[in-house]
Design a protein that fits this description.
alpha+beta; three-stranded antiparallel β-sheet; 13% strand; globular
């Protein structure tokens, strides 16, 4: 993953944490990213972030987003973990907390549109519901 995409992915997670009063369940943030990417692909032909998705028991998951949220040093270098730590910290075992304002300069206008779409459509869903929704999609 190139540095620009990494920084963008950190800001996506930060964006959703900020929208959720500064703290968000990490799986909810990862699912919101999926919905934003899906929206952006269908409307503009590219995802918000070029992340690798894997089919998991809990639905499609961006491996890099999960690695960032869990500070997985087996997959990410210490320097990348440090960069992410400028904006996000683990609040507890399941949650991320925003500790710095979102750097929206990494996003295009259409990225912001997709992120806002995902947030507005899915913000009130429980994480468990967000996990199940993609299983109903034909793809």
């Amino acid at each position: 993953m190139n540095t620009l995409e990494f920084e963008k992915l950190v800001q996506v997670l930060n964006f959703f944490a900020v929208k959720n009063n500064g703290k968000i369940d990490r799986m909810k943030a990862v699912k919101l990213l999926f919905f934003a990417d899906k929206y952006h692909i269908r409307k503009y032909g590219r995802p918000v972030v070029w992340s690798k998705y894997f089919a998991m028991k809990m639905g499609p998951v961006s491996s890099e987003a999960l690695d960032i949220s869990k500070k997985n040093t087996k997959q990410l270098s210490e320097s990348l973990i440090e960069k992410a730590s400028i904006f996000l910290k683990e609040e507890d075992e399941y949650s991320l907390k925003s500790i710095k304002e979102v750097d929206e300069d990494v996003f295009s206008e259409t990225d912001i549109e997709a992120l806002n779409f995902s947030w507005e459509c899915f913000k009130d869903f429980l994480t468990s519901d967000l996990v199940n929704i993609p299983h109903a999609y034909p793809e």
